[in-house]
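User: Could you go from structure to sequence for me? I need the amino acid at each position, not a summary. Structure tokens:
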């Protein structure tokens, strides 16, 4: 066996970087040079998981998550309980995914809040979808607007089951009066993914309009969001 060198000036060779190190660098280069659109959903998810899993190849986990939930948006909005069931997903990864979801929601809400809601309708839709489309239970959300149609408040009034949310029209109007709102946009989600309005959705909306109108409160629309898109009761001429 050859003797070990006793020369103190001789430094040991640094360990080789992990096999995924080069892949991470190439992915970062593509992201910064070509933009996020150049990356697939699983590649963007790989990058999102880098900070949470610094010493692990995130590609297999990213692919598993996309296969399980369907898309990048569905992964970051997936219920925590379901994420925990995916092998390899720990608390650090969950925290990172939920941080991204919260940041996306905060950005879209900021765009809605700073502009006239009716003149920035696409931003309103984007915000509603990012906030609710992937929830596993029905939520009924209210956007309260002032006389300039700018957002005063955004509140989830009720959360229900997978296919039903109890809504009380008088409670809706009571809250609008408390906030001195002059207009409302009603929003709820369909966890089934199909945003088509039900007869109950239409009847509830008309009941709110009937109470709101004599009080000078306009109901601009009722938007239903789902994984497959959105539906506007106003756009469908149902109200």
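Assistant: Here is the amino acid at each position, in order:
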């Amino acid at each position: 066996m050859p003797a070990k060198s006793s020369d103190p000036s001789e430094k040991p060779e640094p360990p080789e970087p992990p096999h995924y190190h080069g892949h991470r660098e190439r992915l970062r280069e593509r992201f910064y040079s070509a933009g996020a659109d150049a990356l697939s959903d699983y590649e963007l998810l790989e990058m999102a998981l880098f900070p949470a899993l610094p010493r692990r190849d995130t590609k297999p986990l990213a692919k598993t998550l996309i296969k399980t939930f369907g898309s990048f948006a569905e992964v970051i909005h997936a219920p925590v309980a379901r994420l925990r069931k995916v092998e390899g997903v720990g608390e650090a990864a969950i925290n990172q995914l939920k941080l991204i979801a919260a940041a996306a929601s905060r950005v879209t809400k900021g765009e809605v809040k700073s502009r006239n809601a009716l003149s920035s309708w696409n931003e309103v839709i984007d915000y509603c979808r990012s906030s609710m489309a992937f929830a596993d239970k029905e939520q009924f959300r209210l956007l309260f607007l002032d006389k300039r149609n700018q957002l005063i408040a955004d509140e989830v009034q009720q959360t229900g089951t997978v296919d039903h949310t109890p809504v009380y029209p008088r409670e809706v109007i009571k809250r609008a009066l408390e906030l001195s709102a002059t207009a409302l946009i009603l929003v709820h989600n369909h966890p089934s993914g199909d945003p088509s309005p039900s007869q109950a959705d239409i009847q509830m909306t008309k009941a709110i309009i009937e109470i709101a109108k004599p009080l000078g409160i306009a109901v601009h629309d009722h938007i239903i969001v789902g994984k497959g898109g959105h539906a506007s009761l106003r756009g469908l001429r149902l109200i």
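One structural detail worth keeping in mind: The CA atoms of residues 76 and 98 lie 6 Å apart.
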